[in-house]
Structure to design on (155 residues):
């Protein structure tokens, strides 16, 4: 069975696994959370900013577009650029035609890449999150001091 889906922007908001099965062709950009597994064909960009988002292009699956996610595992075909925010694994049956930006990459024997690989140290989300409460406390302190100064003026 062959199914063709056209989407301007498909959004998948659960933390579950979403499968684009063999014989399915999706045309349009995808924004998702959780895990996205591709056995069919995607013609469009795939993006997730979540720290645990995972894209798996399985053997027989293909993507014609850019992919940006935390964890990307490729054993199919990609014609586009890849930005792996955490980890990238190029498995034995993969073919990638495009540039790669990564912080951790594994390339297994048999994987094919036509393009450049650029290492970029990504800021771990945990470090950013740990700085946020300190800033929030400082903002609260400044607001309290300003409120106390205003209260003194009105007394």
């Amino acid at each position: 069975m062959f199914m063709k889906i056209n989407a301007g922007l498909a959004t998948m908001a659960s933390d579950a696994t979403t499968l684009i099965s063999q014989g399915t062709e999706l045309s349009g950009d995808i924004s998702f959370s959780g895990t996205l597994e591709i056995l069919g064909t995607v013609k469009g960009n795939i993006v997730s900013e979540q720290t645990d988002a995972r894209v798996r292009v399985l053997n027989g699956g293909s993507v014609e577009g850019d992919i940006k996610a935390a964890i990307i595992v490729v054993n199919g075909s990609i014609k586009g650029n890849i930005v792996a925010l955490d980890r990238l694994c190029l498995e034995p049956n993969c073919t990638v035609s495009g540039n790669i930006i990564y912080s951790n990459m594994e390339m297994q024997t048999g994987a094919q890449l036509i393009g450049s690989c650029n290492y970029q140290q990504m800021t771990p989300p945990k470090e950013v999150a740990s700085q946020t409460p300190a800033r929030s406390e400082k903002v609260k302190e400044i607001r309290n001091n300003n409120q106390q100064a205003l209260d003194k003026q009105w007394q």
